[in-house]
Design a protein that fits this description.
Layout lengths: L2 H24 L5 E8 L3 E7 H6 L8 E5 L16 E11 L4 H14 L16 H7 L1 E15 L10 E5 L11 E4 L3 H8 L4 H11 L5 E6 L15 E4 L8 E5 L6 H13 L15 E6 L28 H4 E5 L10 E2 L10 H9 L8 H8 L10 H21 L17 H8 L6 H11 L6 H17 L5 H11 L11 H7 L5 H7 L14 H10 L3 E5 L5 H24 L7 E5 L17 H8 L5 E7 L7 H4 L4 E4 L5 H7 L9 H6 L5 E5 L7 E5 L5
Parallel strand pairs: 10-16, 10-17, 11-14, 11-15, 12-13, 12-14, 15-16
Antiparallel strand pairs: 1-2, 1-7, 2-5, 3-4, 3-7, 4-5, 5-6, 8-9, 8-19, 17-18, 18-19
Helix pairs in contact: 9-10, 9-19, 11-14, 11-16, 11-17, 12-13, 13-14, 18-19
């Protein structure tokens, strides 16, 4: 034998040993349950005997089974052959056997024979002969084919160990060939449910330099979770890197474990900054949580006072200010370090920001005057264009007067300035008016020609001016407008009252419009000049966990605030991306997402949440959203969701919507029936099939 032949022979021998080791890891001969007797590309049927069913602790619905033709004790297994594979099955229901009708007849006759004998059951010794009892102990089980495990050489390194691979189907089937079926438990089951393709792990290394996984919970097949099925201590892990730059959904009824799971997820991402292995790259990921009920920002009895904001205490020597920061519209007695999300709506640098906040309070269903108000955009003109600057300053004055009328306290050092903003001919027209409203118009003319009136008086003057302009011919405004456009010296042909100015004045006509604007008062303070959205983004780029307590805010205001913060994150990361830089990784969590994310009926693809769902991956923005109803979320967001965490849903409308995604159809009846807290069906980017999990309790 040549040296080359010897090397080849030794390599083949080593591969056979390695292959046998893999089979012995996945196939536990003591967990044999039966034989596969019918198969197609989607389903398989297994015949099982009661003796083996009892021996393995039962076969619950939706449990995993493994089918293979290979004997794991065989030392001559060639991993290249088609038989050298494992078909992964999921138990769905009972399957009829050809002899079932005869078996049922025997059971009925035996039960009739012992009827009334309460100390005896029809299957006990003496009720029927042992041969008959043995035949009746066989039953069929219908299974879904999940996929195939097989072994493959490393294409880059032929000397490297074999890789375990998984395909989400079968490459062939032989209906006339039998396969032995086993119920995986212990290490075998742990290997199956936590399998991740090597290419996914390599992608984590290339993108983040981190392949760390964290424990989510334990395998749980059914609501009836008896402790003797040999699966109670089989852990399920997730890769936090799967969540980065991806969309993740948590659906389920109230009090079924969504918030607890969100905390587990946020904790897993947070702990990437402290890797367990020295070879792992520390990842300090910025996370922001919109907390509508205050359960993440505040300790509460429901969670045994395990507030997520205290997660920094997990690491000895950690400094809170470097790790976690909370924001809110109002202060909290148990959170003295909370930063208030307040903005000075009056200052020049915040005019556009404040206006955007107000605009987000309105929808397409609101009256035309509110939609007109939302259309006004404050873009500073060229300082050399005197006419444009005058019009801009007049609009700014009107806008600030609206704020004052709506109850926004103005800064002490800011007074109305009417200088050169109101044409003397207009003042004269208002002073010369005679009629029912002459007192109002005369007073307004006086106010508008006063250099620094109070904010209350200037608001009254604008209300009167709006009515005077609307009166047109009856008030004499049309005569002034005609003179201004056509007859005055050096007339430009433009109207004195431009459309944006009229849209602003239109608000004074409706007290309800003023009240709607006043909903944003809680976000205003006259004593600051910074923008909290910028502060939040800065905290995120520093890798902090940011919790925004929205429990005390108006729902519309909370939605507009969240939308503006999300827009800030999106635009900032987009700027980095378009500049050729790598955007900073950010995770965004939205609790009670139906209050913030656009509903399914909303088809606006330019919505910031939809854009984040569709473009967030390249901008390295991860989105985790939690709500009670699948149907409440726009489908464009659902279609771009990679990670799913599903607890109890109580109606078929929601479960049927869920069935459109991955293999959740297998779990539809279980999701609808099982109401156990923390019992979730989980599908992540690295998991190639849905795993039923009892999620751990979050604790600090």
């Amino acid at each position: 034998m040549s040296i080359e032949q010897g090397i080849t022979s030794r390599r083949e021998s080593d591969r056979k040993v390695e292959t046998q080791q893999w089979f012995q890891k996945l196939i536990q001969t003591g967990e044999y349950v039966g034989d596969l007797y019918s198969i197609n590309y989607e389903t398989a049927r297994v015949i099982i005997h009661d003796f083996y069913r009892e021996k393995v602790g039962g076969i619950p619905s939706l449990s995993f089974l493994i089918a293979s033709r290979v004997d794991p004790n065989n030392t001559e297994i060639d991993f290249k052959t088609e038989d050298a594979s494992f078909i992964l099955l999921r138990v769905m229901d009972a399957a009829a056997l050809p002899q079932d009708r005869e078996a049922e007849r025997i059971r009925v006759e035996t039960a009739q024979r012992i009827s009334g004998e309460t100390e005896k059951n029809w299957d006990e010794a003496g009720s029927m002969d042992l041969r008959t009892k043995n035949l009746l102990s066989f039953a069929g089980v219908q299974c879904r084919i999940i996929g195939t495990f097989y072994l493959e050489e490393n294409v880059q390194d032929g000397e490297a160990p074999l890789n375990l691979k998984f395909g989400s189907d079968i490459s062939n089937y032989y209906p006339n060939r039998g396969l032995k079926v086993y119920k995986p438990n212990g290490k075998a089951l742990e290997l199956i449910v936590n399998y991740s393709d090597p290419s996914n792990i390599q992608a984590h290394i290339e993108k983040y330099g981190n392949t760390e996984n964290v424990k989510l919970g334990f395998i749980r097949y059914a609501s009836t979770n008896r402790k003797y099925q040999q699966i109670d201590d089989v852990p399920v892990y997730i890769y936090p890197a799967d969540l980065l730059s991806q969309k993740s959904a948590l659906f389920g009824m109230t009090r079924t474990g969504k918030s607890n799971t969100t905390k587990i997820i946020a904790k897993s991402v947070y702990e990437l900054r402290y890797p367990k292995e020295s070879t792992e790259n520390p990842l300090k990921i910025g996370q922001v949580i919109f907390d509508p009920n205050g359960e993440y920002a505040n300790e509460n009895v429901q969670d045994n006072n395990n507030a997520l904001k205290n997660i920094w205490q997990l690491r000895e020597g950690a400094i809170k200010d470097n790790e976690v920061v909370t924001y809110g519209i109002s202060s909290h007695p148990n959170d003295p370090d909370r930063r208030l999300m307040l903005l000075n709506f009056y200052t020049e640098q915040n005019i556009k920001i404040g206006k955007e906040i107000l605009d987000n309070l309105f929808t397409q269903d609101d009256p035309i005057y509110l939609r007109n108000f939302a259309q006004v955009v404050f873009e500073a003109p060229d300082p050399q264009d005197r006419s444009a600057l005058t019009r801009y300053n007049r609009r700014i004055l009107a806008y600030r007067a609206i704020l004052s009328r709506a109850g926004f306290t103005p800064p002490n050092n800011l007074n109305p300035n009417t200088s050169r903003l109101f044409n003397p001919r207009l003042i004269e027209a208002m002073q010369n008016y005679e009629g029912n409203d002459e007192v109002i118009y005369h007073s307004a003319a006086t106010i508008l020609s006063t250099r620094n009136p109070s904010w209350g008086r200037i608001a009254d003057a604008f209300e009167a001016l709006e009515k005077f302009i609307r009166g047109g011919r009856d008030t004499g405004y049309n005569n002034f407008e005609n003179w201004y456009v056509n007859e005055r010296p050096n007339a430009s042909g433009d109207r004195w009252a431009d459309e944006d100015f009229k849209k602003l004045l239109g608000i004074f006509q409706y007290s309800n419009g003023i009240r709607r604007i006043g909903k944003a008062i809680n976000q205003h303070t006259p004593s600051t000049t910074s923008d909290y959205a910028d502060d939040i983004y800065s905290d995120l780029t520093d890798g902090k966990l940011v919790i925004i307590d929205q429990s005390s805010g108006d729902p519309e205001l909370n939605e507009s605030s969240a939308r503006r913060i999300m827009k800030k994150i999106f635009e900032k990361n987009k700027t980095q991306f378009t500049s050729g830089l790598t955007p900073v990784d950010i995770m965004v969590y939205v609790e009670e997402a139906h209050n913030i994310l656009p509903p399914d009926k909303e088809k606006d693809l330019k919505d910031i949440w939809v854009r984040t769902a569709k473009e967030g991956a390249k901008l390295r923005i991860g989105l985790v959203y939690a709500t009670q109803e699948v149907s409440s979320i726009q489908r464009n967001i659902l279609k771009n969701t990679a990670n799913w965490f599903i607890s109890h849903l109580n109606n078929t409308d929601e479960t049927k919507e869920l069935c459109k995604y991955y293999d959740f159809a297998d779990f539809e009846p279980s999701i609808r029936r099982a109401q156990d807290k923390g019992f979730l069906r989980v599908k992540t980017l690295s998991n190639l099939f849905v795993i039923p999990v009892q999620v751990d309790k979050f604790e600090v």
